[in-house]
Amino acid sequence: MLWLPIETINASRLDMPLHKLLFSATLSQNPEKLQQLNLFQPKLFTAGLKERVEIESVNLTSEKTGEEDGLARIEGGFVGKYTTPVGLSEYFIQVAAQDKPLVVLHLMHHLKFRHVLCFTNSVEATHRLFLLVKLVGGLEVREFSSSLHAIKRNRILKQFAAGKIDLLVCSDAMARGMDVDNVQYVLSYDSPPYIKTYIHRVGRTARAGKVGTAVSLCEKKENELFPAEFN
């Protein structure tokens, strides 16, 4: 029997077509899910900062006191295994559950937040907050939920992109995958249950080199959890 030597070929030198795939910030690291892509010798490229950079996108200072209104500042960069946008400024506010509506109204009326995308953890909470802000008045507010017809939801997104809506309240379930333009602030009315959910939320602003601000309302029991995990 004649044994012939086995020659190895460097596949990277083969004249093969190059395919570029773009993924969201929450790319799964599950091997079984990645296998479904049928990748051949893939290479992963990620963009991030070597050093943390603090970018001042807005002034969250009270006009009366000259001090930041109880905001805990967290610099952007890496959140666990995920990255946050370079131009993102992140704040956490410790607040009691019953005072959350007052904080939202304070941010909108006193600090003049506009083009705000506000996330809740349920359709019911979305509707309640929408009704309350609408009742107070002085703002263009809309809700974005599964209770609305698709045509109306598309109309609302176009109005928001055109700057005609000050506050858009929605749940995580409805916001998943939606492409919203002109988002300057992301407000987490209810704390996200997972870091991945937080990344999905804040990723709606500070896109394509722009600056944006994320504000999370945390109850006392969550105050120690979030800055530690997210930082």
Describe the protein's topology.
Layout: H1 31-35, E1 71-74, E2 78-79, E3 82-83, E4 88-94, H2 100-110, E5 116-120, H3 123-136, E6 141-144, H4 150-161, E7 167-171, H5 172-175, E8 185-188, H6 195-202, E9 212-218, H7 220-223, H8 225-230
Parallel strand pairs: 4-9, 5-7, 5-8, 6-7, 8-9
Antiparallel strand pairs: 1-4, 2-3
Write a compact overview of the structure shown.
By secondary structure, this protein is α/β, with parallel strands linked by helices.
Structure report:
- This protein is α/β, with parallel strands linked by helices.
- It has a domain at 71-230: P-loop containing nucleotide triphosphate hydrolases (Rossmann fold), CATH 3.40.50.
- It contains eight helices and nine strands.
- It has helices spanning 31-35, 100-110, 123-136, 150-161, 172-175, 195-202, 220-223, 225-230; strands spanning 71-74, 78-79, 82-83, 88-94, 116-120, 141-144, 167-171, 185-188, 212-218.
- The strands form two sheets. A seven-stranded mixed sheet has the order 1-4-9-8-5-7-6, with helices on both faces. Strands 2-3 form a two-stranded antiparallel ribbon.
- Helix 6 links the parallel strand 8 and strand 9.
- The protein is globular, with a radius of gyration of 22 Å.
- The relative contact order is 0.17.
What order do the helices and strands follow? HEEEEHEHEHEHEHEHH
In CATH terms, what is the architecture of the domain at 71-230? 3-Layer(aba) Sandwich
CATH topology call of the domain at 71-230: Rossmann fold
CATH homologous superfamily grouping of the domain at 71-230: P-loop containing nucleotide triphosphate hydrolases
- Structural class from helices and strands? alpha/beta
Low-confidence stretches: 51-70
| Rg on CA atoms, Å | 22 Å
